[in-house]
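Tokens for chain A. Residues wanted.
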């Protein structure tokens, strides 16, 4: 998913498409791949329309790190052009989920799960601007701390985040993104920690 959220100017951008109601990556010749990204964007947009202020482009990109499936940055949702085969991505994601590195993809495919994770970063970016936070990282920390408290977490936020996934322990921002992916992939079966984070996001988005 988002191992390194930064990307260099030397990386090849395959396609930049201005977001409208129908977002497409026309030069990726895989309809299922494009539909999966579109489905995730629509799912989040339907509940949080303000997010589209922070997702102005949808891009297929070649990442410097071949293990990166997706990223969010510079108001763009970035999806790897290397991993466009749904079955392959499902297999990769399921291996990671089985080891506890990522939450289950539930009833979504791997591309949808990755896109939802990156859209979790976009949601936090939106809330950072809305709440007057310095940046996404500071906002993420505040969201996790409040969710931890509201869910009566014990053992500290890092241990608490580990109930979502190991990757959620990497940073506060990854914790929020993993929670968003977990919740929108698994619904009622998502970790209670993910539910608490999404509840906190909803409170802030509805202010």
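Reply:
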């Amino acid at each position: 998913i988002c191992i390194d959220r930064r990307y260099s100017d030397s990386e090849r951008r395959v396609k930049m498409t201005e977001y409208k109601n129908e977002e497409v990556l026309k030069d990726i010749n895989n309809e299922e791949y494009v539909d999966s990204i579109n489905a995730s964007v629509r799912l989040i947009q339907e509940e949080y329309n303000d997010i589209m202020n922070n997702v102005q482009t949808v891009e297929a990109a070649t990442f410097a790190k071949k293990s990166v499936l997706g990223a969010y940055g510079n108001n763009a949702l970035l999806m790897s052009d290397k991993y466009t085969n749904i079955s392959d991505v499902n297999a990769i994601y399921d291996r990671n989920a089985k080891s506890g590195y990522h939450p289950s993809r539930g009833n979504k495919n791997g591309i949808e799960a990755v896109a939802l994770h990156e859209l979790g970063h976009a949601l936090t970016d939106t809330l950072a601007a809305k709440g007057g936070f310095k940046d996404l990282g500071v906002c993420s920390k505040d969201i996790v701390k409040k969710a931890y408290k509201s869910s009566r977490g014990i053992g500290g936020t890092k241990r608490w985040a580990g109930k979502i996934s190991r990757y959620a322990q990497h940073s506060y921002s990854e914790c929020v993104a993993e929670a968003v992916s977990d919740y929108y992939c698994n619904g009622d079966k998502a970790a209670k920690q993910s539910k608490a984070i999404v509840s906190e996001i909803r409170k802030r988005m509805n202010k």
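The mean pLDDT is 85. Helices lie at 31-47, 86-98, 110-131, 136-150, 157-161, 172-186, 192-205.
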